[in-house]
Amino acid sequence: MKSTKILILLLTMVCFMSCEKTFLSPDLETGINGESYYANDGEIETGVLNIYDGIQGVNALKITNNNLNHAIQVEFYVTEMRSDNTRTKSSEGEAAQFESFTIESTNGIVADYYRSYYNVIYRANLVLANLGAASPEKAIEFEAEAKFLRAYAYFNLVRLYGDIPLVDRIIPPLDTETAFTRVSSATIYELIVSDLETAVTGLGDAGPKDRASKAAAQGLLARVFLTLGRYGEAQGLCEDIMSPGRGFSLESDFKNIFYNEGNDEVIFAIGFLPDSNDDSQNFSAEWLNAVGRTSGVNYVTADARASLDANGGNRTILSYREDSGQAGQYQVVKYLPNGDVSLGIPVTSPDPTSAGNDWIVLRYADVLLMHVEAIMAGGPSTTSSNALASFQMVRDRAGLTTAVTSITKEELLEERRVELAFENQRFFDLVRFGMAQDILSAFSTANNLGYSATDLLLPIPQVEIGLSNGLLTQNPGY
Length: 478
Prior knowledge:
This protein is mainly α. The protein contains 20 helices and 10 strands. The strands form 5 sheets. A two-stranded antiparallel sheet has the order 1-5. Belongs to the SusD family. It comes from Asprobacillus argus.
């Protein structure tokens, strides 16, 4: 956590998983364990912070142990680079499997993401198992926060891997049946909804943007309900967040969303600190040619550039730029660590490989567009005045002030693409809108890629299947 980061080696040793065991129930390797440590509010608070630390992940450019979790720092591979938005610069290595839709079950990034978020779930379960040591008032808050973060982890996993193991408690190392039994996505979603409803009830909005809040829980639950087709409930949640008294609004300058951290548009973000081995991120460097370890990843496709050029308005120049080192190659502008004088973007990290740019998980513009989607309720279009008002607010901020009189599903999907470009939403939007098959198939054909319908799910990591001794099954197509 950026604001209150106090995690120490003690908790890392308590909560980290042995690479020789399942990711879901690690053996404890120190004399201090969860039973003896979590004895009061202060100690449980460090456990809550440790959940955020799990999502934050480890800067792989600074701490190079490949067995550590990298979590959100590798999320762009399994989301944006599996869409029509981004690609590698050189089409080389394991990263290129994502852009070409040729992912193998042995892909280390796929395993890394899976491992990372089950570790987050373990950390959340550890807090939930020790709520009895908390004061009554703090127990409500701790439970709400831990369940929000557990739901966030499960929501990402179920959308990416499909049916997955459900672990809602601390399990012993030999409980392989729980660790390796895939349950239906519907059952996973039942836990996600329950956890988020608890979070909505137990959280307020007074804390920093890199801590869970009621608005964050409502926004995430609204997205879950949209995914499940529960549109009326999603609409109500969005409208509650949009209430004037909640304090959220669009930034007048699109650039400030990403470079004036903690602004009124941000609802929930994962915090990072510059020039810190423990609390910095490396994805900002990886997106820049020859700055990170890669030769350039998450580079902008011609398809995404065409959308932004046509419909981005003043967002376009602040979404991508040409690589100064190679004409015809284009980089993501959001989250630049080393600034850009021509765009008025400040330097956020003197060392780009130790970037401090926060990762925004949920912001107000997203809520406004989810509001439109909820009102549309799976239909082909809407002329609802409430939907038009929300849609127009996002367009007006982009300098596209022509009055909108109706919105089609395709127009909403396009607006989400240009507003939330490179924020790891495109792939999920395509799937949720029921348009992934057509759009990705056409994109694959046009670019001579290998997309097929089974590519909508990632493979279950082969290392997990091996650990399960045959209990864990593979997704079709792998």
